[in-house]
Amino acid sequence: MAGGSCALSQAVSEASSPPPPEFIAHRERLWQELKKKYEAFVKSQARSPIQITLADGSTVDGKAWETRPIDIARNISKDLAEKTVISKVNGVLWDLERPFEGNASVEFLDFDHKDGQYVFWHSSAHIMGEAMERIYGGHLCYGPPLEEGFYYDMWTEGRQVKPEEYPAIDKLCVSIIKEKQPFERLEVAKEDLLKMFAYNEFKVRILNKKVTTPTTTVYKCGTLIDLCVGPHVRNTGEHEANFSHFHSSASHSGCVKSIAVTKSSASYWEGNAEAESLQRIYGISFPTVQAMTDWKHFQVSKFSFAFIVRWPFLISVPGWHRTRFFASLFIQARVINIPSPTPCYSQSLDT
């Protein structure tokens, strides 16, 4: 068993494009069928004239079920369209590609806005979730954003995610970003979703326990299709995206430019210590590579301060050697795999 685990870990570390699990093809077939039905429904809706009120009180004309927030943002300025992470329509977070359904007010939020960060990190969790499925072939559970970053839980049949596997996850995440995969939204009947996710007992539990309406939403990016209320960024990233270790002059945008695994741990399904044991992978992402670099420096600074408070004699160590010492400790701490109960999990469909 140990030998098999080591062999799998080596395969994960070396794999550039692991074969996809079988359930991905099943899910994709159902998605395509349901997408045709939903597109037919949208096409049948009347394209009535509507008025869209901007944040400054001005109004623009549009058409119901046709005009989208991204269209309005582009008409205002290219810079606004590129920097916007998500829109708010009538006070509700709304996908930039999702058409207005009637008269509405609209706001545009970037990464500097709290709601913009929430959506940005939620979408980043889906990017990492896609990579996790493709690498481990496990069953995804919850994958919410946090106050800083995000995580995804996965049932892996008892196999532990190892720190030496983080680079393979990072590498695949970057590949997903470079593909600029669109986030697509579908509203689907509950019974159809039970068929789509029949392979995943955890998604079936969510559907049976938490979905009390005839329909709910799913989102797709690349090979990943997941239960989710959304909303999400327009796509997984941009073609000039770079791995977080590299330098880039890329400007601020509403898409993911830099992403990295920060740690992993054991967790329990919905925080219940008597339920299934899962593997949780945490991550962080930013709209610029520089922001990732700044964040890492800040983490080292916090780590350094904590050690100096506990062991004041360290302040006498020469600056360069002290910096290297703390950076080394921080890197080691980053990869410690500490089992923990679920401190935070989504009570909604934000998976």
What does this entry look like structurally?
It is a single chain. The chain has 351 residues and is an alpha+beta fold. It folds into three domains: 45-109, Ubiquitin-like (UB roll) (Roll), CATH 3.10.20; 125-291, 2-Layer Sandwich (Threonyl-tRNA Synthetase, Chain A, domain 2); 293-334. The protein is 40% helix and 20% strand. The strands form three sheets. The chain has a five-stranded mixed β-sheet. It has a four-stranded antiparallel β-sheet with strand order 6-7-12-11, with helices on both faces. It has a three-stranded antiparallel β-sheet with strand order 8-9-10. Strand 1 and strand 2 form a beta hairpin. Helix 5 packs across helix 6 (166-178) and helix 9 (289-310) crosses helix 10. The longest helix is centred in the middle third of the chain and has 23 residues, at 114-136. It is globular, with a radius of gyration of 22 Å. The two termini are 32 Å apart. The model is unreliable at 239-250 and 332-348 (pLDDT under 50). This is threonine--tRNA ligase. Residues 1-22 are annotated as: Disordered. One of its GO terms (biological process) is threonyl-tRNA aminoacylation. Keywords: Aminoacyl-tRNA synthetase, ATP-binding, Ligase, Nucleotide-binding, Protein biosynthesis.
Summed up:
This protein is α+β, with helices and mostly antiparallel strands and 351 residues long. It has helices at residues 2-14, 23-44, 69-76, 78-83, 114-136, 166-178, 190-196, 201-210, 289-310, 319-334, and strands at residues 49-53, 59-63, 86-89, 92-94, 104-109, 139-140, 150-155, 184-189, 215-221, 224-227, 258-268, 277-286. The chain has 3 domains: 45-109, Roll (Ubiquitin-like (UB roll)), CATH 3.10.20.30; 125-291, 2-Layer Sandwich (Threonyl-tRNA Synthetase, Chain A, domain 2), CATH 3.30.980.10; 293-334.
